[in-house]
Amino acid sequence: MAEIVLYNYWRSSSSYRVRFALALKGLAYRYVAVNLLDKEQREVSHVSRSPTGYVPCIEIDGRSMIESVAIIELLDELFPDPPLYPRDQWQRARVRAMVELINAGIQPLQNLNVLERHSSDPKERIAWAKHFNERGLAALEQLMIANEADGICGHFAFGDALTAADLCLVPQLYGARRFGVELAHYPRVLAAGEAAAATKAGLAAAPEAQPDAVRS
Ligand SMILES: N[C@@H](CCC(=O)N[C@@H](CS)C(=O)NCC(=O)O)C(=O)O
Questions:
Q1: Which residues of 88-121 are buried (b: 16+ CB within 10 A; e: fewer)?
Q2: 57, 84, 114, 172: which sits with the fewest CB atoms below 10 Å from its CB?
Q3: Is the distance from the beta carbon of residue 16 to the nearest atom of ligand 1 less than 6 Å?
Q4: What is the 3-class SS of 143-168, one letter each residue?
Q5: Ligand 1 pocket test: which of 72, 111, 115 has the largest number of ligand atoms within 8 Å of its C-beta?
Q6: pLDDT tens-digit readout, 55-88
Q7: Where residue 126 falls among pLDDT bands split at 50, 70, 90?
Q8: Residue 157 main-chain phi, psi, to 5 deg
Q9: Is the CB of 54 within 6 Å of ligand 1?
Q10: Is any atom of ligand 1 closer than 6 Å to the C-beta of 195?
C-alpha cells in the first residue's frame, strides 16, 4: 500500500479535487492541513514543498507532486481502478476540455492570490469571481449540450461514470455557491454536480467532512 500525504485546506477547490480522486480510488492518506487564511501556504516550510505557494501538494511514497490535475492524472496512472478518463481518445479529450475549462478558465481567476491583487474591496472581489464563474459555467453547460447531442448522456458530467470532469466540477460548484452564482441557470451542470457530490467519494471529499473544517 502506498504511503500518501496530502497537504491541503478544507475549502480549497483544488484540494477538494484531489481528495475526491483519492476517495474514489479508495486510497488512504494522511491529511495535513495548510491554513490559507493564516497564510500558512506562504511559509517557507510549505513553499519548499510547493514552489507556487499553493495547495494541494501530495507525497506518494516520499515523492512530492503539485498541481491538482497533474496529481489526478498521476493517481490515475499509478492506481488505474476506477479510471478517471474514458478510454476512447476523443471522449478522453472532451473530458480534458471540461477539466481545463474549470482548471484554467475559472479557478485561477478566483484564487485568493488573484482576488487580493484585483481589489481590496470584498464586494468587488466577489463580483469579479462571480463573473468568471458564470462565464465558465455557461460554457460548460454548452459543452454538456453538445455532448448530449452526440449521445453522451448520464448522471454525471460525462456519462454514467465519474470522471476527472466531475472531480473538478463538484469543487467548482462549491466555490460558485460561495460567490453567489445562481446555479439554476446551468441545469445540466448543476444536476451532474449534485449527482457526483452525493456519491460516497464525493461525500468523503466534501469540505465539511475534513478535519480542519470550521463549523459555524
Ligand atoms: N493550478 C493549481 C491551483 C492551486 C490553487 O490555486 N490553490 C489555491 C487554493 S484552491 C491556493 O492555494 N491559494 C492560496 C493563495 O492564493 O495564496 C492546482 O490546480 O493545484
A1: eeebbebbbebbebbbeebbebbbeeebeeeeee
A2: 114
A3: no
A4: HHHHHHHCCCCCCECCECCCCHHHHH
A5: 111
A6: 999 999 999 999 999 999 999 999 999 999 999 9
A7: very high
A8: -60, -30
A9: yes
A10: no
For residue 215, pLDDT over 90 is answered with no
Residue 27 Cα to ligand 1 midpoint, Å, equals 22
- Sign of the alpha-carbon dihedral angle for 147, 152, 155, 156: negative
Q: Give the Å distance between the CA of 170 and the centre of ligand 1.
A: 16
Q: Please indicate whether residue 142, judged by its CB atom, sits closer than 6 Å to ligand 1.
A: no
Q: Does the pLDDT of residue 1 top 90, yes or no?
A: no
* Average pLDDT value over all residues in the chain: 97
As a residue count, the chain comes to 216
Amino acid (one-letter) located at 109 = L
- The three cell numbers of residue 69 are 490535475
Q: Is the pLDDT of residue 216 over 80?
A: no
pLDDT tens digit string along 137-190?
999 999 999 999 999 999 999 999 999 999 999 999 999 999 999 999 999 999
Q: Which pTM value belongs to this model?
A: 0.97
The cell for 190 is 448543476
- Our answer on whether the CB atom of 110 is closer than 6 Å to any ligand 1 atom is no
Structural domains of the chain in order of their starting residue, each with its CATH number: 4-81 (3.40.30.10), 89-201 (1.20.1050.10)
